[in-house]
Please model this.
Amino acid sequence: MKIYGIEKFSMVDWDGKIVCTLFASGCNFRCPFCHNASLALSEGNELDQEEIFDFLEKRKGLLDGVCLSGGEPTLHHDIEDFVGKIKAMGYKVKLDTNGTNPKAVKGLIEKGLVDYIAMDIKNCPHKYASTVGVSSITLDNILESVSIIKSSSIPHEFRTTLIKEFHNEEDMKLVASIIEGCDGYFLQHYVDRDSCISHGFTPIDKATAEDWLNHFNGKAKRTALRGY
Model:
């Protein structure tokens, strides 16, 4: 895997755990509101894997786990080998994914290589392509990943970052029907940062987000706002 970034100590990437977060390069989406533009575009320098594993070896007993984020980690064909090495060191692993590679998600689950999965649900189906900034998208892959994750025994969550230019209440009702039966669902506050691909979008206010969250009550075991 090509790892372009590392957060050596994080208490926000996996609820209740202290982790090291690794950022894989490359993404098949171009979400204009993405906070990791350089990763999505594979800009920057690849980190030495030997140094990454040396660091993890030294942090045994101090970190609870490793969060594998991106970019999109499942684009890398050697993800199972990479995660297998992390698991062999005794770490728990969380995967952040956009769900476009259900085969990879299923493989990691079946081989016992992940302990938690967080998948982004960008929008309702008919708005997906415009929201993720690509001309076309295979929605069947997204829905298959949702199904695989929901039906697994792996603790998991789905989340949507709210932006006025992309989302409305009817969209949220459709998303709620897609994720029904999941462990957790979170509506996230958008912040325009220098690292975003594009700028000038409008966050959804807290009161509106709270109203929209009601559509997910009873659909997911846990629901909450993040970043508000």
